[in-house]
Input
Amino acid sequence: MPVARLRRAAQESVSGLPREFWWLWTSTLINRLGAFVATFMALYLTLDRGYSASYAGLVASLHGLGGVVSSLVAGVMADRLGRRPTLLVAQTSTAFSVALLGFMRDPVSIAAVAFLVGMTSNASRPAVQAMMADIVKPEDRVRAFSLNYWAINLGFAVSSAGAGFIAQYSYLAGFLGEAALTLACAVVVFLKLPESRPVRSAVEKTGDAAVRLGTVLRDGRFMSIVGLSFVVALIFQQASVGLPVAMGEDGFSSADYGMAVAVNGVLIVVLQIPVTRFIEHRDPRRLLIISSVLAGYGFGLTAFAGSIGLYAMTVCVWTIAEIVNAPTQTGLVVRLSPVHGRGRYQGMYTMSWSAAALIAPLMSGLVIDHLGAEWLWGTCAALGTVAGLGYWLLLRGLPAEASAVLAGDPAPVTQAPVAPRTDAAGTAPAQ
Output
């Protein structure tokens, strides 16, 4: 009976989504299976190339800075040129730049190409999220974003293990392998994914011409959401920047840190789909408040951890928050975005995470060095509280009609066509 129930739950979790979504999902999975640079860059520079930890940190920051820059540019491209062309440009240029990075030896060249890799690898995210919003019905979007997030973590878990063995043999092979798999993503997009960008009528073009980056910046409610997203992202970034440093100061090895943080990937792979089924039609305002507070205090509890088991327990707490927050937050961004400005809005949202990845290492380093790790975890708890209060204050004032949409009520949807056509919903012809 449990097996039958599990099978039925799995079928319900994946049923009803369009074919185009699954090709996009496949592209995401392939991309994350090839993740090598982001995982092993620091080890490559310090162990293989013999550079200092400070230089490795500089390169990591430049990689993050490239992501900040490209988030906005790619968002504009997704709206102006289309989702499909943006994905093709981003993925082919990522493949080229990653392969090039593997052959760089001069420190200035490595830093410059790492910045380029950060730009190109991050450029596909606004287009992916905008395309997903285009082709999936509103009531299914939280589930779709959750499945995509699950693919990201599944691919990353597999690639981390495989890439570790590859790195022992040849770092260059890892760079070339990521380049090949990223190029395979571009092939999937080229062969299987039609353009999904909605086509505007003459009236819509006149009224919607003002959807520019300035429009996004003047959207106070949305920019407040971006600000809260940045706060939450600062908390989650401590899993890769503050946590390993703090554990190292407590006398734990890198293997110990790996064991503790591996709980995060395992829980996401195991729980993402069933938890999404539980939260799919629940009030996103409450979910964002709860997940923000849970994330903050999950990291806050790290101050009391003194063994690998206790560290793993804190990882369990903030992983649950991550599982709830990721699809809910992305779905909220879609709901607050005008149809013909989804790329720009998603680009601004993506930038909040890129900016957090850039600032979090500096934040954790300063706090740990000058005040101690306990203050870092206390800061995380405070940030989680601030974010939770922010969501409560911001979303409780939404108009009644907006609240209804956020609760999951059906809204007009633009489906990507299987064959070239322009239907009543304004779907663009496939390219």
In short: The radius of gyration is 21 Å. The first helix runs from residue 2 to 14.
